Task: structure prediction
Amino acid sequence: MGIDVYLRWKGQTKEECAAQITGFRIDAGAVGYLREAYHGEPYATMILFSEDWDKQPKGGFVIPNSTLRERLMRAVKAAMLRERMLYHNREPKAFQSFIDFVELHGRLEKEGKNPRIVISA
Result:
């Protein structure tokens, strides 16, 4: 079990959607997919996406990139701490996926593609 986060946008191709089907990889933020297992806190996804997930609108959340950027550093710190605490990873790299996701979201927003965030938990 885990938390899966997908980025959806206007004009997204079948190939772009297929690239997000990664077999639960934790390093696919650049294609618009984040994964976090339910192994224990802290949950970086819950920091980056602090909206009430039970009230997710059809089609996903519309969150301004400026808001995601404000939350990003706290989420990155949580992802790094999580890697060290839960998985004893001395050189955690999962945090890069969160940065890549937010950067992709920002590019899509600038291009007017109405990025939406769909959370499956």
The CA atoms of residues 30 and 103 lie 8 Å apart. The first strand starts at residue 2 and ends at 8.
